[in-house]
């Protein structure tokens, strides 16, 4: 399952190369990211927290209309959060979709 998500992320990344997305320098990126919670199933979700570094991160979930993750899959992103913020913000799938995988995105 993890390889499927990695391949899906790679395909999405390659397909989106026409859109300019600039990453922050490695020295300024969020680090020490940990999954704090996860709820699998319909409408599932969870939260990540990055406690080190000086950058921004957001929780991302991959949700699909079937448990196998092969139909109607989409990525959903929580809001950007700074490592210095004490608030922890997660993301959930729409109630009609299953949580397939959860991770985080760095800016």
List the topology elements.
Layout: H1 2-15, E1 30-39, E2 41-42, E3 45-53, E4 56-64, E5 74-77, E6 81-82, E7 91-92, E8 98-106
Antiparallel strand pairs: 1-3, 2-8, 3-7, 4-5, 4-6, 4-8
What would your notes on this structure say?
The protein is mainly β and 107 residues long. Helix content is 13%, strand content 44%. Strands 2, 4, 5, 6 and 8 form a five-stranded antiparallel sheet that branches. A three-stranded antiparallel sheet has the order 1-3-7, with no helix packed on it. The two termini are 25 Å apart.
Choose one word for the global shape. Answer: elongated
Task: Provide the gyration radius in Å.
Answer: 14 Å
- Specify the biggest β-sheet: 5 strands, antiparallel
Sketch the topology as an H/E string, one letter per element. HEEEEEEEE
Q: Tell me the quaternary state.
A: single chain
